[in-house]
Automatic annotation (TrEMBL):
InterPro entries membership: Surf1/Shy1
Organism field: Oleispira antarctica
Family according to the record: Belongs to the SURF1 family.
Keyword Membrane (UniProt): yes
Compartments, as annotated in UniProt: Cell membrane
Keyword Endoplasmic reticulum: no
Stated name of the protein: SURF1-like protein
GO cellular-component term (any): plasma membrane
Pfam families on file: SURF1
Key words of the record: Cell membrane, Membrane, Transmembrane, Transmembrane helix
């Protein structure tokens, strides 16, 4: 597709949009923009982790101690890292004594198997338990695909999830869940602590990556635009050919 010609510094140009080239640059622009948004959200997660650290420090001497039991059904929060290794956070549901509502509790991190299709099936302690909890904020990551909740082979639970959705949890287990999100500080079933690197460095690192991807997206758009600008030289060639013909006729 050719857009109406324009003149710049005495020369005529036109924009010619070729389908294949345009699709490539648009795809690069969209991909880099999505990556920039993803890194921006990672920076927001780091900010929330910093707030969580401050909150936990304030609540260290005011932690919640409960007696109750773990429900059998649990969840595995996907794409969680610990010291550079990929894994899951195990989310269990703890029902305190004399309460109709369950608490959503993060028991900690566990490593992921080599094969993506192999979903771990950690066990929760049975019987009456004494645990200590600390309240933490819910961080919702960007989810690029549908969260269809797969489970281990030949098992219905635990469900692998991409984000925390308490309302959906309630529908799945037919149990009312208390608003809030808790970290298991002590008690049976505790896994590796949630890894917390420097939130300040993480936040600014991800903001830097976001800016980098955004600049690449803008650069791709500009390269695609300027590469489609062509100088209009056809008329000039025709004029020169006409003048040559006239000169030949005059010579004859």
């Amino acid at each position: 597709m050719i857009i109406k010609p324009f003149t710049l510094y005495g020369r005529r140009y036109f924009i010619k949009l070729e389908l294949g080239q345009s699709l490539i640059f648009i795809a690069i622009f969209i991909l880099c923009t999505l990556l920039a948004i993803w890194q921006w959200n990672r920076a927001e997660e780091s900010r929330l982790l910093a707030a969580q650290n401050n909150q936990q420090a304030e609540q260290k001497n005011n932690q919640l101690k409960l007696a109750g039991h773990w429900l059998e059904k649990s969840f595995l929060l996907d794409n969680r890292t610990h010291k550079g290794k990929v894994g899951y956070y195990q989310l269990g549901l703890f029902k305190p004594v004399a309460s109709n509502k369950a608490l959503l509790v993060n028991l900690g991190w566990l490593p992921a198997p080599i094969l993506r299709s192999d979903i771990p099936s950690p066990k929760l302690p049975s019987g009456q338990q004494q645990i200590t909890l600390a309240n933490i904020p819910i961080i919702k990551p960007v989810v690029w695909t549908s969260d269809h909740w797969p489970s281990p082979v030949n098992k219905d639970w635990p469900k692998r999830i991409q984000s925390i959705d308490i309302e959906r949890f309630e529908l799945a287990i037919q149990q009312v869940i208390e608003e809030g999100y808790w970290q298991l500080i002590s008690g049976k079933g505790k896994l590796i602590n949630i890894f917390q690197s420097s939130p300040y460095l993480n936040k600014h690192k991800h903001l830097g990556y976001a800016l980098q991807w955004l600049l690449i997206a803008i650069a791709a758009l500009m390269v695609g635009f300027f590469s489609s600008i062509k100088e209009q030289v056809i008329e000039a060639k025709n004029d020169s050919q006409d003048s040559n013909l006239k000169d030949k006729k005059n010579d004859q």
